[in-house]
Write a structure and sequence with these properties.
By secondary structure, the chain is an alpha/beta fold. The chain contains five helices and six strands. A six-stranded mixed sheet has the order 3-2-4-1-5-6, with helices on one face. The N and C termini lie far apart (about 65 Å). This is Histidine phosphatase family protein.
Length: about 180
């Protein structure tokens, strides 16, 4: 009988405490280092291939729902080791003009989806895509910057966290 008031109070607290909405993470990376070539769609360099493998190690233990890359070889090759490791296909979403429309389409698919995702993009697409997902404006990504990993944490389609980290070998000129 002594426990009834305590049990009643505990039950009442459970009913008025809202359940924490499930959070999920969206990771965005620039494609890894590409070969210096006149080709408009080059392969990854040896350093880029190492960075792509480093991404697998960096995200180890984080469950992933899917991977998104553009139509360009370098974005797909950046995600290939992760795709093979996790047995996940790479969803290719072509970037078309106007670019803002393509990025809005990618953001819409991510926001309406579930789970954690990794997106490999380009120096000129990551900033606008982060903003379309509800994240902050970021500084422009330089042409020699490949080691940044942007992480958006979403809860009920709203950004509740944003952080930038680095993975793989530091860029020679990243300044950090």
């Amino acid at each position: 009988m002594k426990w009834i008031p305590l049990i009643t109070l505990a039950m009442a607290l459970c009913q008025i405490s809202p359940l924490r909405a499930e959070e999920r993470m969206i990771f965005l990376v620039r494609h890894a280092e590409k070969q210096l070539s006149a080709d408009k769609d080059p392969q990854l360099s040896d350093q880029g291939q190492r960075r792509a493998r480093d991404l697998v190690r960096h995200l180890h233990g984080i469950p992933l729902e899917g991977l998104i890359a553009s139509q360009f070889i370098r974005t797909q090759a950046t995600l290939t080791p992760l795709s093979e490791d996790r047995k996940l296909p790479i969803r290719v979403i072509p970037l078309q003009q106007p670019l803002a429309t393509s990025l809005a389409d990618i953001a819409s698919q991510i926001l309406q989806g579930e789970g954690n995702w990794v997106i490999a993009g380009h120096s000129n697409t990551l900033g606008p895509l982060i903003e379309k997902l509800g994240g902050p404006a970021i500084a422009p990504i330089s042409e020699n910057e490949y080691d940044k990993l942007f992480q958006l944490t979403l809860s009920q389609e709203q950004v509740v966290g944003f952080k930038t980290s680095r993975y793989g070998e530091p860029n020679a000129k990243s300044g950090e």
